[in-house]
Amino acid sequence: IASLLKEVANLKKSNKKNGIGSSKADKEKDKDSSSAKDSATSKPEIKQSNSGNSSGSGNGGMSNFTAMMATPMVDPNSSDHVVAMTQLKEKLVSLGKKLTQKDKELLDKDKLITELKSKNFENEIELRNKLKDTER
C-alpha cells in the first residue's frame, strides 16, 4: 500500500509539473497524506517569507508557491529551534568573552609599546647629551 501511495504521489507531482490539474478532493487528500508524512519526519523545518517578492504576474504566484514548497517548514511541536537558539546565545556569550579578552590583551600590548617607546626616547636623549659632553 505504501508503495502505491508513493507511486500515486509521484504521478500527481508529475501531473502538476506538466500542467495537468487535479480535483479539489485530490488536493485535500494530498494535503492529508503529505501532512501525515511531514509529521512522521523529525527534522525541524524553516518557513521563509517571500512577501517582498510579489511581481503582480500570474507566474510570480506560482514561483512563490514552488519556493515555499521547496523550503522546509518549522514543526511547531518541536523544541529543536529553542535548543538551537540557546546554543547560539551561549556561543555569542563565549565569543563576547573572547573578544573582551583579546581587547584587554591588545591594550596591554599597546601600554608596553608606549613604555618601550618612551624608554627608547629617553635613552636617545641621554646618548645625545653624552655625545655633546664628549665633544666639548
From TrEMBL:
- Biased amino acid composition, Low complexity: 36-54
Q: Name one Pfam family in it.
A: FAM76
User: Which residues lie in coiled coils?
Assistant: none
Q: Which GO terms describe its cellular component?
A: nuclear speck
Stretches with biased composition (Basic and acidic residues): 24-35
Extract the InterPro entries matched here: FAM76
Q: Where is this region: Disordered?
A: 8-73
Q: Which UniProt keywords apply?
A: Coiled coil
Give the top-rank taxon of the lineage listed in the UniProt record for this protein. Eukaryota
* Family per record: Belongs to the FAM76 family.
Q: This chain belongs to which protein, by name?
A: Uncharacterized protein
Instruction: Say which species the protein is native to.
Output: Megaselia scalaris (Humpbacked fly)
